[in-house]
Write a structure and sequence with these properties.
The protein is built from 14 helices and 13 strands. By secondary structure, it is of the alpha+beta class. The protein folds into two domains: 35-102 and 238-424, DD-peptidase/beta-lactamase superfamily (Beta-lactamase, 3-Layer(aba) Sandwich); 112-235, DD-peptidase/beta-lactamase superfamily (Beta-lactamase, 3-Layer(aba) Sandwich).
């Protein structure tokens, strides 16, 4: 009896420890602060709830989560509306969102960590790691209007992938011809219809001409998908594992991944069924089935995340590469990523950022205080996703703003609306 009692006592003592999630998965206590202590007006922050309520009632989105932090302290963190399309379940802070192209800054940060580790350099030719892309052609128009494919003038570099100057595109890109669009769709480069491996994707992409000579223009593109595959080949690890080891675990981003497991499916936020773009985007960005081994991990748009998870990543960038004593990037590398990498080139990121922005390495970067659609600071940075999420960071003001919603068609409206509300609440 004494032995049984002793065993029971030991189990009661260590049981909670054994059942507890590992340290990396335990979400740290949020650093909350009163708005006034961080230069915000509580009254003005209060406008956000009223505006979000109005948008939800108008049918812009079913719901949203808004988070604002300054100096590493969260001054605003609220849920609005509903999690589901039927508006039957209230939005919850643990909601998981398809973040689509907000995957790109995360993959870009991991790539720059590998640069710091000496795994590759920005000026390395991509063909050094992906030989299939060594001898790409470029589509050009002759004086008589005929199309001709010519050799590239110089090799695509890793930097070209990071800043979208490689000459790749999307089937819905701005500079691609109808011919290039159809070739992307026929080859299913963006995996809108089928599942293909990373090797197959690169093989198919190599057979399609670039839309311009490398390092001459910006064109939002599959280049970060290519970057993710390059990182896989260099590391010998799949991209999901690589990001988990390099970023998600160190930053305690416990709900950020390439798919939503069944036990978390009830937390997945949805868009309204009335959204004109929902059907094709939801079919394209599939997050409830684990495609590992069937299709490549989409480094340009495949992740899901939560508001707190993404805030932790964004706060790390604003902090100059460090969060909670964990340093992922050097201060100088972060400054380099948030600088203008398109000097003297054509093209524009304005379709996502609005006017007044250039592009760095993974982020749209504001060139001047003016020329934008919303207030901000020179050097503030942002990106967004086609499903409706967006974030902004302002190193000068030490600001982070995260907007999580699923509204593909209204995404530009809501991201600009949120930024106006954010900066409209700053009083000192």
């Amino acid at each position: 009896m004494r032995l049984k009692a002793l065993v029971l006592a030991v189990m009661l003592a260590i049981g909670p420890v054994l059942l507890a999630p590992p340290a990396w998965a335990q979400q740290p206590t949020l650093p909350l602060a009163a708005p006034e202590t961080q230069g915000f007006s509580k009254e003005r922050l209060g406008r956000i709830a009223d505006v979000m309520k109005g948008e939800i009632e108008k049918g812009t989105i079913p719901g949203a989560i808004t988070l604002i932090a300054r100096g590493g302290k969260i001054v605003h963190y609220e849920t609005h509306g509903f999690l589901d399309a039927a508006k039957s379940r209230p939005m919850r802070k643990e909601a998981i969102f398809r973040i689509a192209s907000m995957t790109k800054p995360i993959v870009s940060a991991a790539a720059m960590m590998m640069v710091e580790q000496g795994r590759f350099k920005l000026n390395d030719p991509v063909g050094q790691y992906l030989p299939e892309l060594k001898d790409m052609k470029v589509e050009t128009k002759k004086a008589d209007g005929a199309v001709e494919d010519v050799a590239i003038a110089r090799a695509i570099t890793v930097q070209d992938l990071l800043r979208h100057t490689a000459g790749f595109t999307y089937s819905f890109g701005g500079q691609r011809s109808e011919r290039i669009k159809n070739l992307y769709l026929e080859a299913d480069i963006e995996t809108q219809k089928s599942d293909i491996t990373s090797d197959e994707m690169i093989k198919r992409l190599a057979g399609i001409s670039l839309v311009f000579q490398p390092a001459t223009s910006f064109e939002y593109s599959v280049s970060i998908d290519v970057l993710g595959i390059l990182m896989e080949r260099v590391s010998g690890k799949p991209l999901d594992r690589l990001l988990d080891e390099m970023i998600f675990r160190p930053l305690k981003m416990k709900d950020t991944a390439f798919y939503v497991p069944p036990e978390k499916a009830s937390r997945l936020a949805d868009a309204l069924d009335s959204d004109p773009n929902k059907a094709w985007i939801w079919k394209w960005i599939r997050v409830t089935d684990n495609g590992a081994g069937k299709r490549y991990f989409n480094g340009g748009g495949g992740l899901v995340s939560t508001t707190e998870d993404y805030w932790r990543f964004a706060q790390m960038i604003v902090n100059g590469g460090e969060l909670d004593g964990v340093r992922l990037l050097s201060k100088k590398t972060v400054e380099f990523m948030l600088s203008d990498h398109l000097v003297g080139m054509g093209g524009s990121a304005a379709g996502t950022t609005g006017p007044g922005y250039t592009f760095g390495l993974g982020f749209g970067v504001r060139k001047d205080d003016g020329f934008g659609w919303v207030p901000g600071s020179k050097g503030d940075a942002m990106w967004a996703g086609i499903c409706g999420t967006s974030f902004t960071i302002d190193p000068r003001e030490k600001l982070v703003g995260v907007f999580m919603a699923q509204g593909p068609t209204t995404r530009i409206h809501t991201r600009m609306l949120f930024k106006n509300l954010l900066y409209g609440a700053v009083v000192r």
